[in-house]
Amino acid sequence: MSGPLDLLLGRLEKGQVLLLDGATGTELERRGVPSELPLWSARALVDHPEEVGRIHAEYVDAGADVLTANTFRTQRRALARGGLGDQAEVLTARAVALAREAAGGGPVAVLGSAPPLEDCYRPDLVPGEAELAREHEEHALHLARAGADAVLIETMNTVREARAALAAARAAGLPALVSFVCWDGARLLSGELLEEALDAVRAESPLAVGVNCLPPSNVPACLPVLSACDLPTCVYANLGEPTDSGSGFRSEECHPTIFAERARQWIDAGVRLVGGCCGTTPSHVEALAHEIGR
Question: Distance between CA 164 and CA 190 in Å, rounded?
Fold first, then answer.
């Protein structure tokens, strides 16, 4: 019997649009769940796992075809800053299990998030090659043991870390998708061209490539590059930078319907996996589902 990922890949081959979920970390914050650094969203796996599961379930109800497990900060390096380094495998497994339970045994795939080891917006902090290989391999192995369908290598700000994470996923026996963060045109935060980044990761045979955690206003600059790629492409934008007002709003905050209308432009340009990143909610995913006729 085909698993959820095989079913979704079959739909991709037919040119259908797949819906990713939306934010987890900022959604926890929006609901009042403590998510302070350095643990950020991983703190909820310890103190409020039921809320993590509830968020996943709401994304499924909204129409998501894919859930991303709350493993964005469950690598040993990140957890060690909060005194939980020895809990890396346990918390990764808990995160995947919560997503799997929310998927309910249906056709919803569960991806394990694999972000940069350091700050997503600081390419200058990316570790050396040996550390990248060792730590991404450990995280990918934890995701494989936990039963993730694939690895979502996301918010990558350098080509070399993306390639290290892809190699780690392959070594763990998991397929992977890779997504880069671009805040100023079609360039990674490292300054590398998105076109060159996509070319560089092709050798690792990712299931899909794309961009995430960029404001909707910068997506159009990336679309020509994505359109020229012969792999399935994904876009899951955020709602911009947090404002300074303390209100929790972000600089490109928009109604879910407006977000979905912008996503229609991505789909019309050939993007086949769409969803939301920081600041988006189940309502944004529900609007996306409505936009594509679900």
Answer: 16
